[in-house]
Amino acid sequence: MKRVIRIILVTVLLLLLPVCAAQAAEKILTASCPASGQGQGVSQKNKAGRFLCLPGGWDASAISLSAEGLNCIYIGDEQKEIRLNQPADLRPYLGQRVPVRGDDGKGLGSLLIIQGSPVTSLMFQIDDKGFRAINGSQDRSITAGTVIAVEGDGTESCNSQLRLMKTRGKNSFTYNKKSYEFKLEDKAPLGGMPKDRTWLLLANYADVSMLRNQITLDLCREIGLPYSVRCTPADVWINGQYLGLYLLTEKIQIKKHRVNITNLEEAMEKVNPEPLDSFEKSSIKDGPLPFMRGYEIPNDPEDITGGYLVTIEKPFRMGKFGYVGVGTIQNVYFRIKEPTYPSLAEIRYLAERIGQMHDAVYAEDGRDPATGKHYSELLDVNSFVLKFLVDDMSKNYDAAAGSQYMFKDSDKVDPLFYAGPAWDYDISYGNAWRYTTAETDYYALKPETKNFFAQLGKHEDFRTLLREKWRDAVRPAMAILIGEKEPKPDGILKPFTEYVAAISQSAAMNEVRRGKGTPMTKDAGGDFVSGTEYLGDWLVRRTHYLDQSYAAAESEEAIREESTAGTETTGQEGE
Fold first, then answer.
1. How far apart are CA 561 and CA 539, in angstroms?
2. pTM of the shown model
3. 12-26, 150-164, 322-336, 531-545, range with the lowest pLDDT
């Protein structure tokens, strides 16, 4: 029996020897480009084999490779010698899977070398365990590390200590590819945007084109929606391993270079010696609205009229996550994003003002029954018209509720509510379960009473402005996007084909790392190529449909005006 066991063990060992030898021969290659700073990338492995991702801003003719225990490697079918820790030209091998062996004669398997597009590259050095922890829980964060940013032209725009990194989003947190917020120790002008410390990385996991958010944010800046978010594509590495292609954006927050309104939270901190997060959360049972929740903060600044940054929120989230804010009798809920810790006095004030605005919008004549004020005296109509058109154009799935930002400054500066900044458009432009068709009405006809913007669309004076702004602002911008006219020399928006070309190499690199993506509907394409073809065609068809829709509505209004004018003239003649 013992002899049989020995034979079995020897046989197993003999079978394992080739595997062990292969694992021993497997080397991790580390790549750097000294001309573009201190960032590093390391080779990774998927089902197809090993791959090495290089930032688009690196000079591929001067890449320094290193591998533990080796002085050189031999690469390609011709087995060209690459001296390690010295600049080498990898351009002939980009996009190819090539055989590699070490100077010890052992084969290292095959290697796919790929380089991203000339976009911003972010290289984080952080604790591996900590990174796994934040991907598993939104209650965890990383508070140490470094960040190096290399721009598309090869210049290093940031080399900073990391103050904070955490995941973000609610539904998007359940996705395999997470979105992140990070904060730098030192301000940096990432992607050519104004210097700041706090930035967001959007994964665009549900959008195989990875362009829906970018084109929408650029569209909003082009047409002048207030404080629209700047953004740029970015490739991301974590501890040398390529994580994927992201959209680097500013964070929507009250700051000088972001939403530049009065900072009420700073004023509150000055009159309360205790930390604001030390106070209890509480609900107000009697007041102007049925739902009001804030913090029991004892002292308020003299002026509590602003600034406020709010979002229209899904009702169930207000309860599930305990958000602070107010809710109306029609189940329109406004979550207060800033100040982060609104006092009960501020909640009462905001509830009264939101209640007036809400009741005016929902009234048939557009006037608040209690004050007689028209909705145009309570909100900035121009920004709400532009936001309405962006969501109608994109068939934004979250148009009814969720990610709908509004802001209000102090009454001493401006008493009106403004729509924007726009946010969260990965599930739009035909990439949504029930809204794939470009040639149907959408936003203007949505019937839900909780849809605040749809209620605005019921007012004829608002619809008149919709037609005017479509003609004068949004349609000219869409003409640029769908390639009907050249972009402005100082404009933001580009033709869609340029957006596609600008990230195509990084999109291919992202697919090697993460696969082809998971769209919300199969109609939206199965990979970057089919996804961008679908989106480009959808943009053209949607634009032409809204041309007919808004032009037809304008013609009908003209007919009604002529008819009314004719009736009045006849009446005067009769008198």
1. 33
2. 0.90
3. 12-26
C-alpha closest to that of 237 among 175, 166, 149, 298:
149
How far is the C-alpha of 533 from the C-alpha of 556, rounded, in Å?
A: 35
String of DSSP letters for 367-420? B-TTT--BGGGTB-HHHHHHHHHHHHHHT-GGGSSSSEEEEE--TTT---EEE-
Phi, psi at 405, each rounded to 5°: -80, 145
Within 8 A by CB and 6+ apart from 275, the residues are none
Helix spans in 82-156 (H): 128-136
Is the CB of residue 249 less than 8 Å from the CB of residue 120? no
Integer Cα distance of 183 and 117 in angstroms: 25
Computed on alpha carbons and rounded to an integer, the radius of gyration of the chain in Å comes to 28
Cα separation of 90 and 82, whole Å?
A: 9
Residue reference for tokens 């400054």: 409
Which among 40, 34, 231 has a CA at the least distance from the CA of 148?
40
Bond prior to 18 in cis (omega within 30° of 0):
no
Tally: H helices and E strands in the chain: 12, 24
Q: Which tokens in the block code for residue 257?
A: 């270079």
- The closest alpha carbon to 408, from 337, 306, 311, belongs to 306
Residue 554 pLDDT: 59
Confidence check: pLDDT of 3 > 80: no
Return the pLDDT at 22. Answer: 38
Burial label, 276 (beta-carbon count in 10 A; 0-12, 13-18, 19+): middle
Phi, psi of 50 (to 5 degrees): -80, 150
Neighbours of 508 (CB within 10 A): 18
Instruction: Say how many C-beta atoms besides its own lie within 10 A of residue 143's C-beta.
Output: 13
Q: What is the pLDDT of residues 71-121, one digit of tens each?
A: 999 999 999 999 999 999 999 999 999 999 999 888 889 999 999 999 999
